[in-house]
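Two folds, back to back.
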Amino acid sequence: MSGGIQCAEHGMSTTTFVCKHVLESLADGVPRGFIYSTLDPAEEPNAYCADCDVMLQQGGGDWNDQLEVKAEIKIVCYGCFLKVAKLNGAQL
């Protein structure tokens, strides 16, 4: 796992990766789906929205550089990750 990230709301926290649509949910409060990886303590948590899940499945089910560019993967702190997970009804 890499280092942490400084968040204005949550302070120093674990780095997580989300698609731009999950980040938009965090900003506007509109659920867009929240598909997340198994939260392995050795890896940074990551999540993507329902639309990116469709794109991923159409692309063969494996993330690659091209899909990551389309999803516009962003970094958020773990506190924000949990906040947007809750907004989308995800049980972590």
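---
second:
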Amino acid sequence: MKTFTATAAQSQFGTLLDDAQVEPVAIEKHGKPSAVVMSAREYERLQEIEDLYWAARADDAARRGFLGVEESKTFIESTLKNA
């Protein structure tokens, strides 16, 4: 992964954007990682992966008999009333 200092990122913004189309680019401030710039396509891909992950977690919870949204709400409300 390429790395730019924050100052270089400002002064070479066009190059930074071009590089980010190929691979994520790290931005360092005071010698420490501060941000990562990536293409919109890569960001969307990561969002899709995250959505699939959480959908799988929800399916797993449903299979194991975890409470659904309404059941959870009812349980929390009754617990708060009895506290």
